[in-house]
Structures are given as C-alpha cells and as structure tokens.
Amino acid sequence: MIFLEETTTRLSLAVIFRDATDPNVKIPQQAVSLVATGIGHQPYFHRAGYWLFLDLQAGLVNLSWKSTQFEDGTQGIDISTLPRLAPIVTISLAKPPAP
Q1: pLDDT at 57
Q2: Lowest CB count within 10 Å: 9, 28, 37, 64, which one?
Q3: Which domain holds residue 37?
Q4: pTM listed for this prediction
C-alpha cells in the first residue's frame, strides 16, 4: 500500500514577449494569446510576464500567437537545445505596418 507518492514538476520552457521597438518593454498578457500545438495542455501565465510550459517531452514545440496590437506569428522551438536550468526564449513582436 502506498501512502505517500512523490511527484516532480520540471520547467521545460519559459516564453516572454518583448516589443521589437523597445526590448525593455514587456508585452502584457492581455495583448497576446499563445497556443502550443501538440503538447496536450496550455501554458501557465506568470505575473512577471512569462508563459510557462511544464513537463514537456524533448523535441520540437510549435508556438503560435495572436495579438490585437502586434503582428501574429509562429515559431518552432527545439526544447532539447535549451539550457536545462534556464529554458527561456524571448520573442520580439513587431507592430503591424500602418495602412
């Protein structure tokens, strides 16, 4: 009989969006919606501005984002190439061209 079971959660990927015109400006959560395909769950948003992915399998993760203030986009990230202790990816978003 098992009374106590140990579980471990590992940070696999952290994504932060920055404004391409001013890298010091973090883009608020309300301005971007992030979707990762093929992982079975959606990321958690940390109030510091990071989208956190936990316990992902090694390999390619396809991210796509939509925004009302910035250009939409997609990017593939190979998790196995990121540093294990700091798997952080910064994505710079550009404003859409003026009509």
Answers
A1: 86
A2: 9
A3: 11-93
A4: 0.82
